[in-house]
Amino acid sequence: MRILATGTIAMVTVAATAGLASAAVAAAPRQPVTPAGVRAAVKPAKPGDFNGDGYRDLAIGAPDAKVGTATKAGAVAVAYGSKNGLSTARRQVISQNSAGIPGTAEKGDHFGRQLAVGDFNRDGYSDLAIGAPGEDIGTKKDAGSLTIVFGSKNGLSTKAVAVDGVGGNTLTAGDFDKDGRTDFATAAVNGTKIWVIRGTTSATPRAVGISPGKDGEVDTLAAGDVTGDGYADLAVSWWWDDPADQGTTSVIAGSAKGLGKKVGPTIELGDTNDVAVGDLNKDGRADVVIGGYEGDGYRVYPGTRNGMDEAHGTTWTEGSDPVTVGDVNGDGYADVASELSPEDGDAVVATRLGSAKGLSANVRTITEKSVGVPPNQNNGFGNSLALTDLNGDGRAELITGIPGLDDFAGAVAVTPGTASGIDASGTKLIKASTFGLGAGARFGTLPR
Questions:
Q1: CA dist 43 to 122, 149, 221, 321, 324, Å?
Q2: Residues 238, 218: contact at Cβ < 8 Å?
Q3: What is the pLDDT of residues 164-195, one digit of tens each?
Q4: Distances in Å between the alpha carbon of 143 and those of 3, 31, 388?
Q5: Bridge partners of 134?
Q6: Based on C-alpha coordinates, what's the Rg of the chain?
Q7: Alpha-carbon distance 341 to 147, whole Å?
Q8: How many CA atoms lie within 13 A of 183 on its CB side?
């Protein structure tokens, strides 16, 4: 539990850490600290480049990790990118017991349930936002919090700030007001309000709650410029708990004042619970990809200046939920990766390449067997996915979370991108044990 206006400022532990086995007042920052190394008018960092060396780094959540005696307190592991790809030789493990991180690790906090990256203070280093949806704030149970850990020339630094009462159960990053600083959007479990923490160099960032409409509970969030006006927009997947279990997806437009009103249609679909955004046809507007449920496929709606183009939406059957977007083959078109887990046999993650006409017929897959993991439904292969370029070659690697592996300790598979798509033969498996995380940690949550 956290008590407002109190707490301990303490440093991020380096290398594997031993022992790791919506009210307005609730949205106030706790223990604000001036971000390290703030420099005016610096070009924002690449998302995920915590040390500013030009290579993206990878944070991986372990939301059920045991920290000290606190079960399911949660932790985040960090490995750094290089010209040779991701390296675990230099690594960090961050929990709420780490020096520099506000608060204390407690049972059921689930610190690391959601992650997002971006240059929040525009100092040239990417920062890491960490959701803890189980955090109690005062007497409010599971009010949730968002912790922002600031990057520096040495990587994630000893400076961090937490904003309480904002949920942290779903999370994304985007520059909604086009000021060059990354903003974070988040929501609580079963929440109907979206909280936006706007990028700032201030020592006291604040959260602003928006309620864009009565569309049910916020399920997932994704950011991108759907309308092509230079402002990041927010795609929201909503969950309706009605007899038909009807889900909806809508887009909230960015502006000079931040997120404002919905733009375009609200798409009604059955059982939807994931959304991703990216420019699949390179027309300057991001398209919206909506994941289905357990093999239902996913739908793609082109971006237009008026939001999603419902009339020209397309359905693809080789995936479902989750979905993620990135450029696997380096041709400038965003590609889509999605989980496809059959009831029996090998779980599958499929990637489909973007093109001038949208998604193409080119599909490549990886399976548990192809990355050296014995097939098992409990592995959760593909429960979390990311596409990000870790070695600076212009092609995104596919990162596949496997949180159930090794008695739910977890792992991630890193599959390289090539000119023709992902190359399963080059996959590297990174296990939770590399970071000193044990059984039950559920290591494998990836940034959105």
A1: 7, 19, 26, 34, 26
A2: yes
A3: 999 999 999 999 999 999 999 999 988 889 99
A4: 12, 17, 31
A5: none
A6: 20
A7: 33
A8: 30
**Which residue is associated with the tokens 């990587």?**
155
> How far out from the chain centre does Cα 114 lie?
6
- Residue pair 260/209 in contact by the 8 Å Cβ criterion: no
- In our burial notation (b when 16+ CB lie closer than 10 A, e otherwise), range 178-203 reads eeebbbbbbbbbebbebbbbbbbeee
Tokens describing residue 154: 């040495």
E strands in 198-270: 207-210, 217-224, 233-239, 246-252, 267-270
Per-residue pLDDT, averaged over 187-209, amounts to 91
C-alpha dihedral, 190 to 31 to 103 to 120, nearest 10°: 60
Distance CA 386, CA 48 (A): 12
pTM of the full structure: 0.91
Q: For residue range 129-159, what is the model confidence (pLDDT) as tens digits?
A: 999 999 999 899 999 999 999 999 999 998 9
Residue 341 has phi, psi (to 5 degrees) of -110, 100
Q: Which of 383, 387, 404, 278 is nearest to 321 (CA)?
A: 383
Residues paired with residue 338 on neighbouring β-strands, in sequence order: 323, 350
Tokens of 203: 């020592």
Single out the residue of 129, 117, 198, 139 nearest to residue 169, CA to CA: 129
Here the tokens at position 131 are 């959701």
Backbone φ and ψ for 327, nearest 5 degrees, come out as -95, 95
Among the listed residues 205, 190, 112, 188, the one whose alpha carbon sits nearest the alpha carbon of residue 448: 112
Which amino acid belongs to residue 359? Answer: L
Helix (H, G, I), strand (E, B) or coil at 425: helix
CA distance 124 to 219: 31
